[in-house]
Specification:
Elements lengths: L13 E5 L6 H11 L4 E5 H7 L7 H24 L3 E6 L4 H10 L5 E7 L2 H11 L6 H9 L7 E4 L5 H11 L8 H5 L2 H9 L15
Parallel strand pairs: 1-3, 1-4, 2-3, 4-5
Bound molecules: adenosine-5'-triphosphate.
Adenosine-5'-triphosphate binds next to helix 1 and helix 5.
InterPro entries: CPT (IPR012853), P-loop_NTPase (IPR027417)
Protein name: AAA family ATPase
Pfam family, one: CPT
């Protein structure tokens, strides 16, 4: 290995998988890391929570500690992309500030926002089967997670296999739209209109194939 002092500038792509807990984000992210041609990094907030020192956090400080972890996660993703790395982000936009924070930090031209959908009954079935998430977590997140109402690409993990979805995302990368969903959502007026509106999803959900 040579130690370089500089490398050519490069803009990292951020594939942003957003969905409730148990919707299948990590499974798709793992499939993406196998199928994408360029090196990429799967960044999930759980990995950042796991880095925290093990001492219990006092209850009155927990909210602030968690908030700073999420903020740090967003900045770490932005930093990796700014250095030219492609990133697969596995995130739950279950609070409005998280989207605003990401919009302020990421280059919106480089973000591919993917809505990871799954029907509630299937989310609850997966939650029971895995047993490592509090019951009802996905149901509580569902009303907010997709409330911004705009994506570059969407999938339904109850109807499509994660590998099929990963290949669909890969095929989409060279024909990304302009403006991207993130470029549009960066405008507060667009966000206000979409959140008042029908929670419309663009484009429409994919036809069933795979499983
Ligand atoms: N397409 C799928 N079909 C059936 N089961 C799936 C599918 N995708 C994921 N699962 C299962 O659902 C569970 C949750 O998947 P996964 O960990 O990918 O979800 P997640 O959205 O990353 O959840 P969390 O945010 O809670 O970490 C796992 O047990 C996984 O095997």
């Amino acid at each position: 290995m040579r130690h370089l002092s500089t490398v050519p500038p490069r803009r990292g792509t951020v594939i942003f998988l957003n969905g409730t807990s148990s919707s299948g984000k990590s499974t798709i992210a793992a499939a993406l890391t196998r199928v994408l041609d360029e090196p990429c990094f799967h960044m999930a907030v759980d990995a950042f929570h796991a880095m925290r020192s093990p001492a219990p956090v006092p209850a009155d400080r927990l909210d602030a500690v968690l908030h700073r972890t999420w903020q740090g996660f967003h900045r770490a993703v932005a930093g990796m992309a700014a250095a030219g790395n492609d990133v697969v982000v596995d995130h739950v936009l279950s609070a409005e500030w998280r989207l605003r924070d990401c919009l302020a930090l990421f280059d919106p031209r480089d973000v591919v926002l993917v809505g990871v959908h799954c029907p509630l009954a299937e989310l609850e079935r997966r939650e029971r089967a895995r047993g490592d998430r509090p019951p009802g977590l996905a149901a509580r997140q569902l009303p907010q997670v997709h409330a911004h109402g705009l994506y570059d690409l969407e999938c339904d993990t109850a109807r499509e296999d994660a590998d099929v979805i990963a290949h669909r995302i890969k095929d989409f990368l060279p024909r990304r739209p302009s403006p991207t969903a993130f470029e549009q959502l960066a405008d507060p007026a667009v966000r206000a209109r979409l959140s008042r509106g029908s929670r419309g999803r663009t484009p429409p959900p994919p036809p069933p194939h795979g499983r």
